[in-house]
Amino acid sequence: MMPHRKHFISLLIFISFGIVADGVPCGSKFMKVSKRSLAYDQDYGEDSSSSDFLPLEIMVLTSSRFDPLPYDTQASFEDALHHMSELVSVRRHSKPYLLKNAIEKCAKDWMGSDSRLNRGHFARDARQYYDEYAGKIDLNEFGKNFALFLYEDRDLCEKDPAMLAAANPCQPENAERPLVATLIVCSNNPVWSGFKNAFDLFRHEILHALGYGTFNAKQPAPPLHYPWKLSQETQYWKAHFMDFANRATAYAKYHFDCPQLDGVESDEDKIHLDEYIYGNELMTPNVGNGQNYFTSISAKILEETYTRKQWYQVNQQIVKEETQLYWYGKKWGCTFAKKSCAEFIEEKTHYRSNNGLDIPAFPFCNADNLDVATDGRKLELCVTNGTDSRILRTGCYIGRRGYRYGESRLPATSLYDLFGDDIPARASQSTGAEPPRRYCPFVDFVAKEDDSVGEWPANSKIVKC
Ligand SMILES: [Zn+2]
Fold it and tell me: Per the entry, which co-factors are needed (predicted)?
């Protein structure tokens, strides 16, 4: 993974200057080893009875040198632990023991040599057991079935001021699910000061801790090259895909209304859902200050992440409620999911021009919108589900000029490259949103993932204002 490291550092340092308060990388990419390998075959035919599964109950171990989390962050962490217990059930483990050596080895893998475990790491009620059992704790004794080793890695955190937190599971000893994971929280990093959504951040990290995006499949989904037409030239985008996503792909086809979808597109390391395609889904790299939804797409990936026998089940009712609120990408079609934003904008502007929509190519601004927005005027987007409506006022997100090559998998693209002579001269040399959003001219609140627009009504559509 080392060749990618430099790339990510430059990308995230850029983000720290660009959208610190609006969308923040979780930082899992910065772990020294980003993925574990699973070498076992999956048995899809295996039936599991519900008595094989228990609500996820997490024991938190903290480093004796770890400063307590700030009050609000700690409260959000505890809310997230409680919520995840309702959301996720885990398979009973045949040996639910925390072994001192195993945790130390895992901590060393992630955190370097200075991570010796002592009884001070354990919750007060577990310390005595730690002594009595000489480093072996039976999680059952505490009504727990998973452990998080909470830690602050000062070196890692200082190296990347845009990192909020990171989590990775420790290697399971056999085909059973992981029992323990590391969670790093960089609570002294300045990026926390503009961040208001620690609850979603911890939900996101706990899913990584369980194995979401952090295990390698035996047969990884291969990358594909998509041709992207711009105004004058064609670019080739190397699309990567999430593993363990057979059922998720079937659902995503329905969500986007795109039967030709090839898979669930991911970031380069296959740890997160692609930011551009999946927007405010919980498992994209940026956890925004607005709503981040744990949808059926991620739920199915989690349920399919296992060896031999299924490790996790999710609470379908909670997932259904969040999925209904997830508006990003809904019925936006294959042009959105597989082609360039220039092609999507052209198609939607053409087909919707008679509908009287202010922003016909939503989530993007078209050339007319950019003309209005760069003139300082606002655009309106109206959404309704028939009984509940919202009017959102927005602008277009104009990026800084001169992104450097290497900040994205694509060469830097100006708005002129996307629109040609249709673009107003005053904006032609500007770019759209940041590299994870492919320099495309997103409307303001989408690019920022902020909380200014509140929630959309469930199952709403864009209508003429
Ligand atoms: Zn993450």
Answer: Zn(2+)
Structure tokens at 13: 């340092």
Return d(Cα 315, Cα 331) in angstroms, integer.
25
Q: Worst-scoring range by mean pLDDT, 51-60, 347-356, 418-427?
A: 347-356
How far apart are the CA of 268 and the centre of ligand 1, in A? 13
Residue 272 in marked binding region:
yes
Q: Give the C-alpha distances (Å, rounded to integers) separating 172 from 98, 100, 103, 176.
A: 11, 14, 11, 7
Instruction: Give 257-280 pLDDT, tens digit per residue.
Output: 999 999 999 999 999 999 999 999
Of the ranges 27-36, 127-136, 161-170, 186-195, which one carries the lowest mean pLDDT score?
27-36
Q: How far is the CA of 210 from the centre of ligand 1 (A)?
A: 12
- Ion ligand 1 nearby residues (CB, 5 A): 26, 28
Q: How far is CA 123 from CA 119, 120, 142, 150, in A?
A: 9, 8, 11, 11
- Distance in Å, CA 203 to ligand 1 centroid: 10
Report the C-alpha gap between 170 and 97 in whole angstroms: 13
What separation in angstroms does the CA of 232 have from each of 26, 48, 414, 418, 419?
A: 36, 54, 12, 8, 9
Mean pLDDT along residues 322-343: 96
Q: Amino acid identity of 429?
A: Q
Tell me how far apart the alpha carbons of residues 428 and 419 are, in angstroms, rounded to a whole number: 8
Active site residue 205: yes
- Return the structure tokens found at 173: 């000893």
Name the helix (H) or strand (E) containing 124: helix 124-132
CA distances, 243 to each of 9, 45, 209, 239, 258 (Å): 24, 19, 16, 13, 19
> Is position 208 annotated in a ligand binding site?
yes
Whether 359 and 375 have beta carbons less than 8 Å apart is answered as no
- What is the number of other CB atoms lying within 10 angstroms of the CB of residue 114? 10
Radius of gyration of the chain (CA): 23
Whole-model pTM over 0.90 = no
Please give the distance, rounded to the nearest whole angstrom, from the Cα atom of residue 8 to the centre of ligand 1: 13
Of 205, 322, 407, 449, catalytic: 205
Contact yes or no for 206/186 (Cβ under 8 A):
no
